[in-house]
Design brief:
- By secondary structure, the chain is α/β, with parallel strands linked by helices.
- It has one domain: 3-Layer(aba) Sandwich (Rossmann fold).
- The protein has six helices and seven strands; from the N terminus they run βαβαβααβααβββ.
- It has a seven-stranded mixed sheet, with helices on both faces.
- Strand 5 and strand 6 form a beta hairpin.
- Helix 1 packs across helix 2 and helix 4 packs across helix 5.
- It is globular and about 45 Å long.
- The mean pLDDT is 93.
Length: 211
């Protein structure tokens, strides 16, 4: 299931935070695993749903994320440049010790690592706690959002770094429901002096004082 862009249509400014499009590779991707041909088409199609909007494009420096953002812009008919953003890639908002994270992922798998982390089983010296990293990521996005008067900011990152914000703000059950799928994600829209996060049928207000 790809992201629902309906909330974007109801606001003069908003942020769309999504996982990259479909890629080659297994559960834990190599940095160089590229988008599949279908993944490229998916990104262009999502962009076509954003036509007419003033876009700013941000992506992890990993090439599949940059390509996803660029293809979304292409589909939207936008000439916006893709800005590479460290908070969307490595080290992102959570990774403290990349070498130890890689070792743990190799042993536990992606979901096993994340579930153990959420239950307090991963040292904060290796991977930051969910609230801290989530507030770092969403705070940065919220500040960017408040810096413009209209338009949509699109952020393309990775499942391991984007899904925890749903856990923190919306009570998402990662153990039961898994990570965000390709091109799935959430919307952030200014509302009542704060930012409203929406994902499928859930939503939550985030106070600007938290950013």
């Amino acid at each position: 299931m790809t992201v629902d862009v309906t909330p974007l249509e109801k606001s003069g400014r908003a942020a769309l935070v999504i996982r990259h499009s479909e890629r080659f590779g297994g559960e834990i991707a190599a940095h160089g695993d590229p988008l599949t041909p279908h993944g490229r088409d998916m990104a262009r199609e999502l962009g076509s749903r954003l036509r007419g909007l003033d876009l700013r494009l941000y992506a992890s420096s990993i090439q599949r994320c940059v390509d996803t953002a660029r293809l979304i812009g292409e589909g939207a008919g936008s000439d916006a440049e893709v800005v590479k953003a460290p908070l969307l890639g490595i080290p992102g908002p959570y990774v403290v010790d990349e070498e130890e994270v890689d070792k743990s992922l190799a042993v536990m798998g992606l979901k096993g690592f994340a579930v153990r982390w959420l239950k307090g089983g991963i040292s904060p010296r290796v991977f930051r706690p969910c609230p801290e990293g989530s507030e770092m990521l969403v705070g940065w996005i919220g500040r960017n959002l408040r810096s413009r008067s209209e338009g949509v900011d699109v952020y393309v990152g990775h499942d391991l770094f984007l899904t925890p914000a749903l856990v923190h703000y919306l009570g998402y059950d990662l153990e039961a429901d898994g990570f965000l799928g390709f091109l799935d994600g959430y919307c952030l829209v200014p509302a009542n002096g704060g930012i409203r996060m929406t994902y499928r049928d859930g939503s939550a207000m985030i106070a600007c004082s938290k950013m």
